[in-house]
Amino acid sequence: MNKSKKGVFDRTIPYNDLPELPIADEIIDKDILLQWGLSSRALAALNKNIMRIPNPLMLVNTISLQEAQSSTAIENIFTTEDELYKAISDQTKEELANPATKEVLRYREALWGGYGALQKKKTFDKSVAVKIFQQIKNTRQGIRSPQSQVVIKRGQSEFRAGEIIYTPPRGAGIIEKKIDNLFAFLNQEKGLDPLLKMVIAHYQFEAIHPFIDGNGRTGRILNLLYLVDQKLLTHPVLYLSKYIIHHKDDYYYHLAGVTQRGMWKPWILFMLKAVEGTAEQSNQKIDEILAQMAITYQYANAKIKWYSYELNQALFSQPYIKQKLVGEITGAKSRTTLTKYMLQLTELGILSSQTDGREVYYINNDLIRILEG
Ligand SMILES: Nc1ncnc2c1ncn2[C@@H]1O[C@H](COP(=O)(O)OP(=O)(O)OP(=O)(O)O)[C@@H](O)[C@H]1O
Ligand SMILES: [Mg+2]
C-alpha cells in the first residue's frame, strides 16, 4: 500500500497498486472531447501536409533527429546540431561521431527500427517496446528484473535534487502483467479513439517504468508508432518531445497528479494540447519549407541555366549536401564543371560551403533556419 496513515501517497514505496486499464468512462467528459476534436483535426492536417513533401522520409529524418536531440536533452546530453546534421547526411561520419551524438542517433535508429518492425509484423505488442529500449540503450536486456531498485528522482539541477518522486511497481511477474494489460488496452478494437488511448497509455507506460532507464524516450517513440499503427499518421512525424521539454514541469506534475490524486483529466488535456500544438507547429514548418523551395527554385532557375526542379528537390532533401549528389543530378561531365557549378551555387547564396578535415560540405542555410526555428 502506498498510502501512509495520514492518507498521503508514499513515493518511496513501489506502486504495485497501480490500477490496470481502462480508466472509468466518466473521466472522458465534454471538455476532453472538445479538446480531442481540436487535436485530431490538427493531426489529420499534418498527416495530409506531409504528403506534399516530395521526399517525406528525409524530412522525417531531420524532424526525428531534432526530436531525438531535444528528447535526450532532458537528460542533459549535449551535442551540437552541426555535428548531428553531418552525421545524418553521411554514413561514414556517423561512425566517427562522439558518444553524445551517437546516443542521439540511436534514438533516431530506434524510431526507424520500431517503424520498420511494425511495417513487417503489424502487431503493436511489448516486443516493439523492448526493441526500442534495446536500441536506445544499446543493450540486450529486456524488461527489468523483479529485484532491481528503480526509482525516479528529481534532476540534479532542480530544487531538492535527488529526492525520490516516484517508485514504480516491483516484484516477480508484476511488471509483465501490467505491460500485457497495457498492450491489450491499446489493441482493443472497441472503445476509445486511438488518440485518447495513446494519451492514457503514455501515463500507464511511464508509471509501470518497465526498463532500467530510457523509459521516457521509449515511451515517446511508442506514442508515435502507435499513431502510425492506428493509421492516424503515415509517417512517425510528430514533434512531441520538444513540447514536453518546454513544459517539462507540467508534464511531470500531471504524471504525478494521476498517481497521487487520480487526476486523469488534467493529464489527458495536457497531452491532447501537446498533440495539437505540436501538429500545428510541424504544419507550419512544412509550409515554410515548401514556400522556401518555390522561391529558391524561381531565383536559381532565373540565374542558372542548368538548375533543375530535380536539383531543387535534392537541395531541400537534407541540410548538408555533398558535391557528389549535385554531380549525379546535373550530370556534370568533369570535375572542373562540377567545381564551377558548386561555385555558382555558393556565389548565389543557395548553398554555403564548409570544410571539415578533407571533406567539403555544402549547407542549405535556408533549410536549416526553418528546421531549427
Ligand atoms: N511521477 C512520475 N510517474 C511516472 N512517470 C514519471 C514520473 N515522473 C517522471 N516520469 C517519467 O519518467 C521518465 C524518465 O525516466 P527514464 O530516466 O527511465 O527515461 P529516459 O528516457 O532516460 O529520460 P528522459 O525521459 O528524461 O529523456 C520521464 O520522461 C517521465 O516520462
Ligand atoms: Mg534516464
Description:
By secondary structure, the chain is mainly alpha-helical. It folds into 2 domains: 25-283, Fic-like fold, CATH 1.10.3290; 304-372, Arc Repressor Mutant, subunit A. Helix content is 62%, strand content 5%. It is built from 16 helices and 5 strands. The strands form 2 sheets. The protein has a 3-stranded antiparallel sheet. A two-stranded antiparallel ribbon has the order 1-2. Helix 10 (240-246) packs across helix 11 and helix 13 (309-315) packs antiparallel against helix 14 (323-330). The longest helix has 40 residues, at 264-303. The mean pLDDT is 89. The structure holds adenosine-5'-triphosphate and magnesium ion (MG). Adenosine-5'-triphosphate is lined by residues 71, 74-75, 152, 165-166, 206-207, 213-217, 219, 252, 255-256, 259.
Brief digest:
The chain is mostly helical and 373 residues long.
Keywords:
binds magnesium ion, mainly alpha, 16 helices, Arc Repressor Mutant, subunit A, binds adenosine-5'-triphosphate, 62% helix, 5 strands, 2 domains, Fic-like fold, 373 residues
